[in-house]
Specification:
alpha/beta; Nitrilase/N-carbamoyl-D-aminoacid amidohydrolase; 6-stranded mixed sheet; globular
């Protein structure tokens, strides 16, 4: 089975109506490319705008049942393609940075809110999510176990590790920041240490503080049938706006996961108690 993921590396417009029009056209292009999943960059509903005024922030937020979000659900059903749509979600006490994954029938399969919000910056205005989730996604080619993490989540190994322990084979990772060597290395490491694929969709150059370089790491570091190691990066987009398609060989990934040593096979969770205890940093 081959899983085809389209990364919608797009410049945002102005307002929900234009965001929907741009996003719809990109999804239609992804379908023309035979994608199984189309993934948006982080907080597509407003182009990652986070007003620092509570009233303005509330007015910009939308609900999961809004016409904007449901419009992408209807589009997923029309195109027979899964769509991962991101948005500033209305929530009490503060909005959330969220993604909803609709399957090819237009049914909501995953609803995740960013756990590791950037509280040192603009996202101090947001509420963090409460957990990580995995769903079975029927692509029409077969079923894939999919989870999500968003941008800064990648800097915490626990994010991808929990998703792996819950069964994830593929992580969808909406993003809005400069993708440079260290952040790309973190994504590669999350894929390597958990033996899963990580698909990251960023905004292109032209969006403030973003530079494209959306990526897919397929999680397979070496093959029994090939000498040496292989590059897990099967796609790295340029800086320019566009719809970029990656094909993940799920049969190869599953065979690799069945025999190799990373992931959960040699963990010692009984030794990791400190990870569950809040501790003060050395600076405190």
């Amino acid at each position: 089975m081959v899983l085809k993921i389209a990364l919608l590396q797009l410049l945002p417009g102005n307002g929900l109506e234009e965001q929907f029009r741009i996003g719809k056209a990109a999804c239609e292009r992804a379908k023309e490319m035979d994608a199984d999943i189309a993934l948006f960059p982080e907080m597509w509903s407003d182009g990652y705008a986070i007003p620092q005024d509570e009233t303005a922030l509330h007015d910009l937020s939308i609900t999961a049942d809004s016409d904007f979000i449901q419009g992408f659900g209807h589009l997923a059903a029309k195109l027979r393609m899964a769509v991962g749509i991101t948005y500033l979600e209305r929530h009490n006490p503060k909005p959330r940075n969220s993604v909803i994954l609709f399957d090819r029938d237009g049914k909501r399969r995953l609803h995740y809110s960013k756990v590791h919000t950037c509280d040192f910056d603009l996202e101090k205005m947001l509420s963090p999510g409460g957990d990580f989730y995995v769903t079975d996604l029927d692509t029409g080619r077969g079923s894939v176990k999919v989870g999500s993490m968003i941008c800064f989540d990648r800097e915490f190994p626990e994010s991808a590790r929990i998703l792996m322990l819950k069964g994830a084979e593929v992580i969808l990772a909406p993003n809005a920041c400069p993708m440079e060597i260290n952040r790309l290395a973190a994504l590669r490491t999350r894929a390597y240490e958990n033996m899963l694929a990580v698909a990251t969709c960023n905004y292109p150059a032209g969006q403030p503080d973003c530079n494209g370089h959306s990526t897919v790491f397929d999680g397979v570091a070496w093959s029994r049938n090939e000498p040496g190691v292989r590059d897990m990066c099967i796609l790295e987009a340029p800086e320019e706006e566009g719809v970029y398609l990656a094909e993940i060989d799920m049969d190869m990934l599953r065979e690799y996961r069945a025999h190799e040593v990373m992931g959960s096979r040699y963990r010692h969770p009984e030794k990791y108690g400190l990870l569950n205890q809040p501790i003060l940093s050395s600076a405190e």
